[in-house]
């Protein structure tokens, strides 16, 4: 009996070790990022363990989900895709009808925990785009582009209505990247971008007053010294005063003296820049770039169109997080609620990211054989 | 060719993807390089500038909370104001050992368990550098004792603030409500920019429904802080804009008289000006002291309020629902005229029991043996059930509920308070939704006398009565008459246009109902005869007595013990005056009243007396003697035939079969 158990254990161990489901470079990059994120959070939270502990638990949960999802073959994911997409979009509608949250109706209260369906859509959106494009003739024509555009517009519109412009942007970008990777012709991309550009005045008209104010304060931060202008000014001072080498870990005076608001969540990268300087920023960018690059590599090795598009879109949407958050912290982009991945405090987005990387691990495990 | 296009070419697709992925990567690389360029710009090119600014970053904006708007009655009597007070605040990050500090501080200034509980709760919700209030409303003595010991308690400070105060205590508690400390749930709901530095928010009543008006806009001052974050000096001040003052349409004198008239017995009264929907008085008895809630109510006080059997926290005026009983009869009667089913002079024979044709079930009249032949006016005067049984049946439930719905029954009246109950307007749709059952004609019959499924709030009845009294023009009830930007600024009236067209098409119809209601109070056989004695204007009214329990048999209950009846009945009285051109409409309910006219009627009269005293042009008044109206059947003044006692017998329908 015991021998049988031993044999089974050994076989399992061998399987895990010799045929790892996970891509080691990607996993190493993610672990490194998680560690850097926790260290920054520890400093930004003023040496408190409460936030760091909570974040570590979420990371643990996220990595556990990553391992779990990595065992689901991409074909299975593809079969589930329409249902997952429809389900998550339905949840968005439910939230729109009876949601609750801080000013913005983004949350569903499940009794024990509150849950943000728009986080789910960040994954189901690229899945759906990939699912739709998978059997089609690629590069896609106008008809397919229009269909994918509609698939993007429904959830993104619902999320923007909540109003959560940051998440809507991430969702739309994830879908758009799938289109881009499917080989949509450059001239069509250019035409669409030009069209979108000409729609800016219309979008301005439909924006919430506070959203317009955010854009305006970006242009003139001193106009709103108590609100967002204050964020932008203080954040830039934090970043700029970091210099090339930074003030050192735990030495961010801007956040210590409470000059920097939201310094554990959306503006945590300002603390990082202040403490680690330009060198730290460059290293961090290299780390993100490495993870994105690895994702694209996994995508290129993938067996079928669905896997390729999904892996590529997830990897590229990581870039949107980094660019939008980094640009916002540096006063280059308006203040929208996009976190710095794996660094900003706040659970659901880290868990969503890791679940997404779980899919990448699965795609990697089922890649085409190099004979 | 077409076939080749339709086939997917895996190899070329893979190649296409590879090219796209590379292009994407290059684009990302460029964008991130641009982002890093921005950081180079900030951290290298402008390093000196930002390093200096960070070093000199000593100027901080400190929010100035706005003063909350004051609340006055219609004549400028102050109902809610702000009193300067001092509180003890603690900045957690400046305290080394919180428990030791609290223990020591407790010896200087007594700290109650409630203070400590609230402090620890808020400590968990706030950030380490934010100051947390420990004890509110310090006495002079406490401030002095702390000032001497202040050096021992770094991080603890006495801070001035404005404390909300309700000088009239419980009198307006159910109207104005109260403010209380902002809690974690509020933080999720409120705009953080508007509530910076604010500690209190309107919790219930007008304080809540007019929160946006009363709150104001915070200002800020730019202060220089030292390296520890302590304020050194103020550089610039941008003052806050205080909240607007509001003026109620309620007259505190009428309000006071109304509350006193209840003599502590549970019930509610609402008085409305039918000409514009302004509420003149709104009381719910018993009441509570709203000042207890402002700084956080103690557990003992709160338990006492919530466990009291007569529920002082319940606002009976807008949330108490009661069967309206006979008070609906004038509305039903007017419906019969307006729908063309009756003329005022049409008569009905009251025999004591009413039968739906072809059914054996009997519906009782008020008086054994009935009162004989009555027209509409007499039916209202003596509250003759049979007239309204028959009329309701002729209307049918659909026309009945459509007509009564026009008076606002079964839905919130739209008063400027939150949390109004809808009550129940019996209808086929309501029953199908609630019980998933069909409607029976017998239910139409008893709906005609305000029994069965009916449930109304005192406010709904007052609103309906005001609509009736105002010749059918409906106005949503309004508590707030005007707002004001500051005490020396002009009052800006809040407009309140009619909420719909008039419900009355013929003045003759209105006058018939008005006459019936005048007879209730002024004709010898009226159910509330004597109530108008000594009042200079003609009063029109209607009593209502609804049973709290359903009747088990159709036998007449001979128990005339008033205490026994009060425990079984809810007493209503509705009244408006002057009857020809009404200026005030009042609805009164007593949760335990023996009879509508004799128990609730005198309360309504006292409200009218108080109102009259506020009318400069009014003739003199002779209030009723303190004994009020005699209970029916016991008074020698009751007109001769004992059978027509004049008071409406509680009019629950018989629920048993009677032999045909």
Explain the overall architecture.
The complex is a heterodimer of chains A (371) and B (660). By secondary structure, chain A is an all-alpha fold. Chain A has one domain. Helices cover 71% and strands 1% of the residues of chain A. In chain A, strand 1 and strand 2 form a beta hairpin. Chain A is globular and about 65 Å long. Chain A starts with a helix and ends in a 6-residue tail after the last helix. Chain B is of the alpha+beta class and 660 residues long. Chain B is 36% helix and 19% strand. In chain B, the strands form 7 sheets. In chain B, strands 2, 3, 4, 5, 12, 19 and 20 form a 7-stranded mixed beta sheet that branches. Chain B has a 5-stranded antiparallel beta sheet with strand order 14-13-23-22-21. Chain B has a 3-stranded antiparallel beta sheet with strand order 1-9-10, with no helix packed on it. The longest helix of chain B has 36 residues. Chain B is globular, with a radius of gyration of 33 Å. The N terminus and C terminus of chain B are likely disordered. Classes of the chains: A mainly alpha (371), B alpha+beta (660).
How are the SSEs ordered, and which strands pair?
The complex is a heterodimer of chains A (371) and B (660).
Chain A: H1 2-18, H2 24-44, H3 49-69, H4 74-98, E1 108-109, E2 114-115, H5 117-133, H6 142-160, H7 165-181, H8 186-198, H9 200-206, H10 209-219, H11 228-242, H12 253-256, H13 268-301, H14 305-329, H15 347-365
Antiparallel strand pairs in A: 1-2
Helix pairs in contact in A: 2-3, 2-13, 3-15, 4-5, 4-6, 5-6, 5-7, 5-14, 5-15, 6-7, 7-14, 11-13, 13-14, 13-15, 14-15
Chain B: H1 2-6, H2 10-45, H3 47-55, E1 59-64, E2 71-72, E3 78-90, H4 98-108, H5 113-125, E4 132-135, H6 140-149, E5 156-165, H7 173-176, E6 178-181, H8 184-189, E7 200-204, H9 205-209, H10 211-215, E8 216-217, E9 219-225, E10 231-238, E11 241-242, E12 245-248, H11 252-262, E13 267-272, E14 279-285, H12 291-294, H13 299-307, H14 316-319, H15 329-338, E15 348-350, E16 353-355, E17 362-364, E18 372-374, H16 376-382, H17 385-405, H18 428-435, H19 441-447, H20 458-469, E19 480-484, E20 491-493, H21 507-522, E21 540-547, H22 562-568, E22 569-577, E23 584-590, H23 596-613
Parallel strand pairs in B: 2-12
Antiparallel strand pairs in B: 1-9, 2-3, 3-4, 3-5, 6-7, 8-11, 9-10, 12-19, 13-14, 13-23, 15-18, 16-17, 19-20, 21-22, 22-23
């Amino acid at each position: 009996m015991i021998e049988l158990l031993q044999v089974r254990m050994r076989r399992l161990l061998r399987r895990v070790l010799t045929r790892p489901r996970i891509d080691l470079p990607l996993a190493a990059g993610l672990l490194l990022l998680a560690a850097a994120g926790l260290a920054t959070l520890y400093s930004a939270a003023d040496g408190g363990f409460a936030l760091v502990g909570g974040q570590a638990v979420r990371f643990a949960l996220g990595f556990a989900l990553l391992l779990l999802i990595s065992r689901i073959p991409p074909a299975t994911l593809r079969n589930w895709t329409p249902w997952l997409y429809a389900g998550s979009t339905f949840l968005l509608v439910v939230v729109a009808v009876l949601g609750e949250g801080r000013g913005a109706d983004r949350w569903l209260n499940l009794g024990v925990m509150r849950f943000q369906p728009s986080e789910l859509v960040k994954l189901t959106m690229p899945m759906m785009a990939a699912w739709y494009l998978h059997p089609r003739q690629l590069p896609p024509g106008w008809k397919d582009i229009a269909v994918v555009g509609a698939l993007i517009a429904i959830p993104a519109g619902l999320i923007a209505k909540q109003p959560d412009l940051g998440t809507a942007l991430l969702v739309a970008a994830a879908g758009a990247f799938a289109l881009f990777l499917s080989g949509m012709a450059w001239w069509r991309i250019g035409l669409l971008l030009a069209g979108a550009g000409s729609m800016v005045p219309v979008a301005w008209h439909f924006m919430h007053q506070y959203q317009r104010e955010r854009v305006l304060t970006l242009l003139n931060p001193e106009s709103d010294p108590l609100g967002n202008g204050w964020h932008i000014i203080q954040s830039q001072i934090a970043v700029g005063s970091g210099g090339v080498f930074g003030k050192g870990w735990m030495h961010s005076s801007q956040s210590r003296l409470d000059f920097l608001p939201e310094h554990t969540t959306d503006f945590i990268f300002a603390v990082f820049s202040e403490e680690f300087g330009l060198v730290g920023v460059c290293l961090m960018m290299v780390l993100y770039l490495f993870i994105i690059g690895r994702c694209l590599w996994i995508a290129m090795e993938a067996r079928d169109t669905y896997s390729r598009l999904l892996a590529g879109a997830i990897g590229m949407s990581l870039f949107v997080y980094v660019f939008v958050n980094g640009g916002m912290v540096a006063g280059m982009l308006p203040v929208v609620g996009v976190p710095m991945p794996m660094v900003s405090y706040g659970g659901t987005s880290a868990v969503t990211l890791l679940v997404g990387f779980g899919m990448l691990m699965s795609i990697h495990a089922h890649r085409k054989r190099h004979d | 060719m077409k076939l080749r296009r339709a086939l997917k070419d895996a190899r070329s697709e893979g190649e296409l993807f590879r090219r796209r992925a590379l292009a994407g990567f290059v684009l990302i690389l460029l964008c991130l390089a641009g982002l890093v360029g921005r950081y180079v710009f900030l951290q290298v090119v402008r390093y000196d500038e930002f390093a200096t600014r960070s070093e000199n970053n000593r100027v901080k904006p400190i929010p100035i909370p706005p003063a909350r708007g004051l609340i006055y009655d219609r004549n400028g009597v102050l109902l809610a104001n702000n009193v300067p007070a001092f509180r003890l605040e603690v900045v957690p990050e400046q305290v080394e050992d919180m428990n030791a500090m609290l223990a020591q501080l407790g010896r200087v200034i007594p700290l109650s368990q409630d203070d400590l509980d609230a402090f620890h709760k808020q400590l968990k919700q706030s950030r380490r550098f934010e100051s947390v209030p420990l004890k509110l409303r310090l006495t002079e003595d406490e401030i002095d004792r702390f000032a001497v010991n202040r050096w021992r308690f770094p991080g603890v400070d006495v801070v001035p603030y404005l404390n909300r105060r309700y000088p009239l205590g419980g009198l307006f508690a159910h109207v104005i409500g109260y403010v209380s400390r902002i809690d974690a749930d509020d933080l999720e709901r409120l705009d953080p920019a508007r509530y910076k530095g604010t500690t209190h928010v309107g919790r219930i009543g007008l304080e809540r429904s007019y929160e946006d008006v009363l709150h104001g806009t915070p200002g800020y001052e730019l202060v220089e802080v030292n390296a520890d974050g302590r304020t050194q000096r103020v550089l610039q001040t941008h003052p806050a804009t205080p909240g607007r003052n509001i003026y109620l349409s309620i007259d505190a004198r009428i309000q006071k008289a109304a509350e006193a008239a209840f003599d502590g017995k549970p019930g509610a009264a609402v008085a409305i000006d039918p000409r514009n929907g302004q509420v003149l008085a709104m009381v719910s008895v018993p009441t509570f002291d709203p000042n207890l809630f402002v700084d956080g109510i103690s557990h003992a006080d709160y338990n006492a309020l919530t466990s009291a059997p007569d529920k002082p926290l319940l606002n009976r005026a807008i949330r108490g629902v009661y069967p309206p009983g006979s008070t609906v009869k004038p509305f039903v009667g007017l419906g019969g005229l307006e729908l063309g089913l009756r003329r005022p002079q049409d008569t009905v024979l009251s025999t004591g029991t009413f039968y739906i044709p072809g059914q054996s079930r009997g519906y009782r009249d008020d008086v054994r043996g009935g009162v004989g032949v009555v027209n509409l006016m007499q039916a209202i005067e003596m509250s003759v059930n049979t007239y309204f049984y028959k009329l309701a049946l002729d209307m049918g439930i659909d026309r009945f509920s459509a007509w009564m719905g026009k008076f606002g029954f079964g839905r919130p009246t739209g008063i400027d308070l939150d949390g109004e109950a809808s009550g129940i307007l019996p209808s086929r749709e309501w029953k199908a939704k609630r019980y998933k059952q069909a409607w029976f004609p017998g239910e139409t019959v008893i709906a005609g006398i305000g029994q069965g499924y009916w449930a109304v709030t005192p406010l709904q009845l007052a609103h309906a009565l005001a609509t009736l009294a105002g010749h059918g023009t409906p106005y949503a009830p309004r508590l707030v008459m005007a707002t004001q930007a500051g005490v020396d600024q002009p009052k800006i009236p809040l407009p309140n246009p009619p909420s719909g067209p008039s419900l009355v098409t013929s003045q003759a119809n209105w006058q018939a109902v008005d006459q019936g209601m005048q007879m209730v109070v002024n004709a010898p056989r009226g159910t509330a005869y004597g109530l108008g004695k000594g009042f200079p204007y003609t009063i029109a009214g209607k009593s209502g007595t609804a049973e709290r329990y359903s009747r088990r048999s159709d036998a007449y209950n001979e128990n005339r013990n008033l205490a026994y009846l009060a425990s079984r009945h809810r007493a209503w009285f509705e009244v408006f005056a002057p009857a020809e051109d009404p200026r005030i409409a009042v609805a009164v309910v007593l949760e335990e009243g023996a009879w509508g006219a004799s128990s609730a009627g005198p309360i309504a009269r006292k409200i009218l007396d108080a109102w009259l005293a506020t009318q400069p042009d009014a003739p003199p008044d002779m209030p009723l003697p303190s004994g009020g109206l005699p209970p029916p059947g016991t008074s020698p003044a009751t007109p001769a035939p004992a059978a027509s006692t004049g008071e409406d017998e509680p009019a629950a329908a018989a629920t048993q079969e009677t032999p045909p």
